[in-house]
Amino acid sequence: MRALLISGGLAMVVALFGTPLFIRWLVRRQYGQFIRQDGPTAHFTKRGTPTMGGVVIIAASLFGYFGSKVVTGSAPTTSALLALFLMTGLGVVGLLDDYIKISRQRSLGLRARWKIVGQGLVGVAFSVLALQFPNEHFRTPASTQVSFIRDTNLDLAFKGATVGLILFVIWANFLITAWSNAVNLTDGLDGLATGVSLIVFGAYVVVGIWQNNQSCQNILTAGPRCYETRDPLDLAIVAAAITGALFGFLWWNASPARIFMGDTGSLALGGALAALTILSRTEILGAIIGGMFVLIVLSDVIQIGFFKLTGKRVFKMAPLHHHFELSGWGEVTIVIRFWLIAGLFVAVGVGVFYAEWVTG
């Protein structure tokens, strides 16, 4: 428990006091946000606001996690290192995307194929490594079984280990891409993605602590009253570090934002969330806990699909927050209400998680 507090506290301090220093550095180099011309006109005033704030989130999270390890004298676990690898790797892809946007003053960063290649390389490496490194009980960080609150009977390795590995890589990369795009789409208003992410990662601190207290680490087969997660406490420490980093960053990202997280932050956070759902064996439950992200993605899918079928739009503009913005809602009002909805999704998700254990 001490490591959790140290991890979150260190990350928060680094983000809170490191962000303004990073803002000054970005301003001196004129690394400002490019605003798309087809968006709400109110956003034009945000042109030039420093971006790439995800660098601070990633750095603070890494400092918080490894700092807690140094203070407590414990070694990092494989699961935690994999989660941080996916977060950092996708963050680097996002950083390249942000830098191209800024340097060329356009809304298009990396071309789609190169962005897919970058995300794919990081995602495939994570997926393959997550099925390696068995512990003394032959339990690897991830599993080929599709999970809800724990591993289900749907095993992707039903045709053998090789097929299982291929199908798991595809499944894991679907989750990584889905969560990365979800956070990226949500990052459209000051503090929106940061606040929603803070609530969701905070929930995974709770999930990790509970799984650790009811761990199956001393037995080979998981039961209804314990969890097969490989390193639940260390995953909670990672989630605590990210939560702390987001808390400190939100101070400067809340409306009116002095810095944006950019694709650097949104891709990194999406990757971290995907890693936590996969490694904690809560892949489907994650869609409930992160329901606000899912809702925003669905609004985009519905808008595009309905327009292609009928030539008409369901929303004034997608994603969903822009619809309410064009309907006359204030930006702060939208953000706070979406935070509240995110909190409700988290409450339902954690409630389902606990109810399964009770009934089990």
Number of strands: 2
* Computed Rg: 20 Å
Main beta sheet: 2 strands, antiparallel
Strand content: under 5%
| Domains (count) | 1
Distance between the termini: 26 Å
Which structural class do the helices and strands define?
Answer: mainly alpha
Mean residue pLDDT: 90
The geometry reads as globular
Number of helices: 12
**Unreliably modeled segments:** none
Report on this structure.
By secondary structure, the chain is mainly alpha-helical. The protein has one domain. Helix content is 67%, strand content 2%. The protein has twelve helices and two strands. The chain has a two-stranded antiparallel sheet. A hairpin with a 3-residue loop joins strand 1 and strand 2. The longest helix has 29 residues. The chain is globular.
Key features of this structure:
360 residues, mainly alpha, two-stranded antiparallel sheet, 12 helices, 67% helix, 2% strand
What is this entry, summarized?
This protein is an all-alpha fold. The chain contains 12 helices and 2 strands, in the order H-H-H-H-E-E-H-H-H-H-H-H-H-H.
Helices and strands, with pairings:
Blueprint: H1 2-28, H2 54-72, H3 78-104, H4 112-130, E1 145-147, E2 151-155, H5 161-186, H6 192-213, H7 232-253, H8 262-279, H9 285-289, H10 291-310, H11 320-326, H12 331-359
Antiparallel strand pairs: 1-2
